[in-house]
Amino acid sequence: MTATTSAIAYARRERRRFVDELKELVAFPTVSADPRHASGMQRCAAWLADHLRAIGLDEASIWPTAGHPVVFARTKGVVDGAPTLLIYGHYDVQPEGARADWKTPPFQGTIRGDELFARGASDDKGQLFAHIKALEAYLATGGLPVNAVCLFDGEEEIGSPQLIRMLSRVAPRIRADVIVISDTRMPSPDRPALTYALRGALHLEVRVSGPTRSVHAGYFGGSAPNPLDHLTKVVAGLSGRNGAVGLEGFYDRVRTLSGEERRYMAATGPTDSEIVRAQGAVAPAMDRGYSLYERTTVLPSLTVTRVLADPNAGRAAIPAHASAWFDIRLVPDQRPGEVAELVRNRLSYAPGKGLRVSLRVGAGTRPVELSRTDGAARAAASAYRTAFGVEPVFLRSGGSIGIVAAFVDTFSIPIVLMGFGLPGDGIHGPNEKFHLPTFFRGIETSIWFMRNLRQAARSLPAMAGR
Amino acid sequence: MTATTSAIAYARRERRRFVDELKELVAFPTVSADPRHASGMQRCAAWLADHLRAIGLDEASIWPTAGHPVVFARTKGVVDGAPTLLIYGHYDVQPEGARADWKTPPFQGTIRGDELFARGASDDKGQLFAHIKALEAYLATGGLPVNAVCLFDGEEEIGSPQLIRMLSRVAPRIRADVIVISDTRMPSPDRPALTYALRGALHLEVRVSGPTRSVHAGYFGGSAPNPLDHLTKVVAGLSGRNGAVGLEGFYDRVRTLSGEERRYMAATGPTDSEIVRAQGAVAPAMDRGYSLYERTTVLPSLTVTRVLADPNAGRAAIPAHASAWFDIRLVPDQRPGEVAELVRNRLSYAPGKGLRVSLRVGAGTRPVELSRTDGAARAAASAYRTAFGVEPVFLRSGGSIGIVAAFVDTFSIPIVLMGFGLPGDGIHGPNEKFHLPTFFRGIETSIWFMRNLRQAARSLPAMAGR
To answer: How far does CA A91 lie from the centroid of its chain?
Structure first.
């Protein structure tokens, strides 16, 4: 029996325990957006560091930050001639929302059939844990074929501000040849997929202010300027018509897709009807001849997500101020700063007497495109094929992972987005769940991936240069 | 000494006690919009009925309703040949809002200088109490010159739904010749005013629904319809441009003002700069040549007061649904039902694929115009002149009082809106207050008004027909 088949056998024997441990991990209430969960974050980080130490990793430590801590660990010694794999994941989760919408307690793992229900079960504790268990399977049997570094973020759901800020400083301690991240999806349990593109993201708040305080709509309706009214005009103007964004210059940098890539996408990606089913609504018409898969991945989007008027204003009041929040998704070669400037220019028109408009720009994330053909991508595709018995496809995602662009900027090494999530996992919503058969195949995919990476060492760019 | 001068002397002697009693009245937390205050409403109604009985009224009773109770009372016996005055007021109050914004506890009367601070001090407990104390002053001295009926509403701040529904049924028990309501304002303590017109009101909710649940703006931005986006277009379209409402036909029924009335309004009403100061913002430009006083009283208005997207949607989500609330103010001869139909017709355009639009129409209030010259109006003006030493003006208000239109429909008798509120009272906001010197003058105005009504009995329409 080879080291790899021993590791696979071990992982199969220990499945029940692995699930019990994952239930421990999802029980920590690690909502990074909520300051009240700070101690839950600390306890979860400590649990992870202890766990990594227990399975045999070295230097397992908690890096404090100005926000939530980062968990770091590295394998003992160095496997000569083997590449070093950086495993990135995040242990923070989205807010659980209204408890009444959950059929099981959000911070208590509950198994029903093949599914583990809990906040974070899929995004991202379960996916992250698949790699930890792959490491353990090797360490408990014949030893690892690669060097491994773990970097577990506590702020992915809020844009990874601390880790992105400290990344260039800690880069020398990481020294990796390949990065793997499992925080994406496959279309179904039998259709494994690697993600090779992410849209960028930009979050904006537009605020309109008017009267010094909210005033009575009866006494002053007709004479007082209404910030909320003007705000709706701003939003309506930005969002445009016919499904297109109404911001001048917004599409200028969008690349024209090659016929070859469109054909590849049409052959591998979700169909329009699959997307309509997934989003629970038919799509608005759009003038251009794009498929919905293309509209959500190679075209940018602008979504108004919230509008809020002065919460102190009564039901019959002209509110003193109102804000709208925008979620903008960007594609190559759009740049967050340039798009923010387009919005700022649009808002520079005089809003009308008695009103002021201001813009707040969040930290943007650049779009990312990864190779589908480099040594790491081939090693990953082959690992999926072995573990799932099916050839994986490479998909574009409409989503964004802030840290990926930062990795691209900091390390010139291959990045593999090896997702084990499923469309029905309900991430960010109530009743989030993780499909356990996919969890087990995910562990095996990670085991084969490490073996394949070792064999492909010479074809990896950083290794080739050593 | 006549009965009236005895009553005046009594009212002046007892001022301190009157204020102490008013402090008891404002201490009841009578927020009609909040079901948790139901017992406070009951206790306040009981306190009022006991108080009316104690000062000598008969039949003091609490009328239960499907909502909050109505307090009713009538003077004992009948003063032959004298008119019957219906005193309407309301003992419910607006929600107190954030306690942190209050400098004194909202449900504890606090005197600072000439002001009594408390929620409801001005709107409407203090103003209502002025009439109660006028009744007491007569009853404790030479007896009343008129018959009096008290009708104190517990739901004015939520549109008086129960009282309006029951009004025609209870009308025979009321049998009044004149109605007086003190729930309006004077421009300043030395500028007494009667209100002779109220705008009507119509509240609408427009709701746009899209995806069956909120979906991720990254995965589905570009393919999923956005209800909030469409809603902003609906709002922007309704509100129009240049300060005018953009709803076709909205101005069709608005009366053209006579030159005489415009001159009267210009001579008596607030100036543009007074309105700008009161609303805390300069007014948006408007194409037509109206003063701000005219724009807020003889022109209708449409105000979007709130926009809310699915509260379960995350910060990076396309919300499943979104609603906007509108406060529309109407002028003669606009009708709430017709205006709601104009909005409904506008919304009947297809909203785009994947979206549905619905409209919820609240109970509307018709606009009201009252006489400035009938016997009751003259009796009231004369009472102000005596109590304040200044000739009062007749003003239009941009606000609405739902019960007034119902009184117009049910009783064909004069209605006098005899306000003792001041622009700085801060009604509906934090730190509401009532100006005590105006409270005392209000009591004396009510005393003189009853005397004048008695003397003008023959000129009152209902009396003339007896």
So the answer is: 12
Phi-psi region of B175 (alpha: psi -120 to 50; beta: other; left: phi over 0): left
Inter-chain CB pairs, A–B, below 8 Å: 270
Q: Summarize pLDDT for B27-76 with one digit per residue, the tens.
A: 999 999 999 999 999 999 999 999 999 999 988 999 999 999 999 999 98
How far is residue A41's CA from residue A157's CA, in Å, rounded to a whole number? 13
- What is d(CA B16, CA A463) in angstroms, rounded to the nearest whole number? 93
Distance, in Å, from the CA atom of A40 to the CA atom of A38, rounded to the nearest integer, reads 5
- Selected for mutation to probe chain A from B99, B223, B310 (highest A CB count within 10 Å) is B223
What residues of A are in contact with residue B400 (Cβ under 8 Å)?
A: 218
Q: Which of B316, B329, B397 faces A327 most closely, judged by CB atoms?
A: B316
What is the DSSP-derived secondary structure letter of residue A121? Answer: I
**H/E run at residue B386:** helix B375-388
A126 vs A361: CA distance, rounded Å? 33
Considering only the beta carbons, identify the residue of B276, B312, B354 that sits closest to A98: B312
Euclidean distance between CA atoms A462 and A178, whole angstroms: 8
- ipTM of this complex: 0.89
Q: Tell me the pTM.
A: 0.88
Q: Tell me the nearest-neighbour CA distance from B6 into chain A, angstroms.
A: 39
Distance of alpha carbon A198 from alpha carbon A417, whole angstroms: 10
Chain B within 8 Å of A256 (Cβ-Cβ)?
Answer: no
CA distance B324 to chain A (A): 10
pLDDT in tens, B66-86: 999 999 999 988 888 899 999
